[in-house]
TrEMBL record:
The keyword Oxidoreductase applies. One of its GO terms (molecular function) is oxidoreductase activity, acting on the aldehyde or oxo group of donors, iron-sulfur protein as acceptor. One of its GO terms (biological process) is cellular respiration. It holds the Pfam family TPP_enzyme_C. InterPro entries: 2-oxoacid:Fd_oxidoreductase, THDP-binding, TPP_enzyme_TPP-bd. Keywords: Oxidoreductase. Residues 59-202 form the Thiamine pyrophosphate enzyme TPP-binding domain. This is 2-oxoglutarate ferredoxin oxidoreductase, beta subunit. PANTHER family: 2-OXOGLUTARATE OXIDOREDUCTASE SUBUNIT KORB-RELATED, 2-OXOGLUTARATE SYNTHASE SUBUNIT KORB.
């Protein structure tokens, strides 16, 4: 308990921005806890960390922490983060987004940030719904589910955020859940120190807008669902297609070394300056 109190007073704006706006039982608080524990373990100075977010329930997370923070516009968090990283490559830039924020209105920004291999970390909290704006379906809402914009049932098919990131070219891609909090700490830590564009998809619960409407129970029931349906990547080799049919993988999906955009950009700048100097 003493250690928790220490972290609260070290990293949270506990005397300015609380109480928070999240529903009781929301997984966003677990993500926040994992994030500050990972940063604390890495020993970074608070002034060397920049937390950027867009709009939505997850967008409030940077408001509560005592780092350099940017609360930006819907779907544009990665564009702001790109500017920060290019202006000062020495900063540890972490972007917090929701499934709708990152992959709907922000979908193209997400794909091309991965393709460029920007040296920053994207944490995407996936609760299968637009929670803050009224329960509309998102790109990860399952086929057949109910939402305020799918009152009879959802007829679009969801896509996998993590697999999209792998295909788009991210250097590291991982998936965790808010149930597996200890594992999430390690995944976020690994993603922050990874050189290149790293993505951590966090499967979370929105029992208020998604769970209640789809009769999935409250926060506890939805967390139990994560426990029962998540399979560690290492175990999938031992399982057949039928066993994996209604499961999802957690752990590191890809970890590869690729040229870093900021470093390549620096080389271009230096080459251009040398050419201009030689022409004088």
């Amino acid at each position: 308990m003493a250690e928790v109190t220490k972290l609260i007073h070290k990293y949270l704006r506990h005397d300015k921005k609380f109480p928070h706006v999240w529903c009781p039982g929301c997984g966003n608080g677990i993500v926040l806890g994992s994030l500050i524990r990972a940063i604390d373990k890495l020993g970074y100075e608070k002034d060397d960390v920049v937390l950027v977010s867009g709009i939505g329930c997850s967008g409030r997370l940077p408001v509560y922490v005592d780092f350099n923070t940017l609360h930006t516009t819907h779907g544009r968090a990665l564009t702001f983060a790109t500017g920060v990283k290019l202006a000062n490559p020495n900063l540890h830039v972490i972007v917090i987004m929701g499934d709708g924020d990152a992959t709907a209105i922000g979908g193209n920004h997400f794909i091309h940030a991965a393709r460029r291999n920007l040296n920053l970390t994207a944490i995407i909290i996936n609760n299968n719904i637009y929670g803050m704006t009224g329960g509309q379906y998102s790109p990860t809402t399952p086929y057949g589910a109910l939402a305020t914009t799918a009152m009879y049932r959802h007829i679009e098919h969801a896509f996998s955020i993590a697999e999209l990131a792998v295909t788009a070219g991210a250097a590291m891609v991982a998936r965790g859940t808010v149930y597996h909090a200890n594992m999430l700490d390690k995944l976020i830590e690994k993603a922050i120190v990874k050189r290149g564009f790293s993505v951590v998809e966090v499967v979370s619960n929105c029992h208020t807008q998604y769970g209640r409407r789809n009769k999935l129970g409250g926060a506890v029931e939805m967390l139990r669902w994560q426990k029962d349906h998540a399979v560690r990547v290492e175990k999938t080799a031992e399982m057949g297609e039928e066993e994996l049919a209604d499961r999802f993988t957690i752990g590191v999906l890809v970890d590869r070394d690729l040229p870093i955009y900021t470093e390549e950009y620096k080389k271009i700048r230096e080459a251009a300056r040398a050419k201009m100097a030689a022409a004088r």
